[in-house]
Specification:
Structural class: mainly alpha
CATH architecture: Alpha Horseshoe
CATH superfamily: Tetratricopeptide repeat domain
CATH topology: Serine Threonine Protein Phosphatase 5, Tetratricopeptide repeat
CATH class: Mainly Alpha
Radius of gyration: 11 Å
Number of helices: 5
Low-confidence stretches: none
Oligomer: single chain
Number of domains: 1
Shape: globular
Order of helices and strands: HHHHH
């Protein structure tokens, strides 16, 4: 999250991918990776991780909000 806050997206994505690999059932890891990927312009891949976060935890508010924003922009 520190790397994301410093806009170091490539490094953040690398670390978040490792987090997802280590904790594949972590909604937070998927949500954070999804958000980082979207910010890096990898929207389709990011959406997959945001959806996975909601599969794991349907009440994950950040994943839900990010998907809603993308939907309003015409991305699904």
């Amino acid at each position: 999250m520190f790397l994301l806050s410093r806009n170091q997206l490539a490094e953040a994505i690398e670390h978040l991918r490792k987090a997802v690999a280590l904790m594949p059932n972590s909604a937070d890891a998927h949500s954070n990776l999804g958000g980082a990927l979207v910010n890096a312009g990898k929207v389709d891949e990011g959406i997959q991780h945001l959806r996975r976060a909601l599969e794991l935890r349907p009440d994950h508010e950040l994943a839900r909000q990010n998907l809603a924003i993308l939907e309003r922009r015409g991305r699904r």
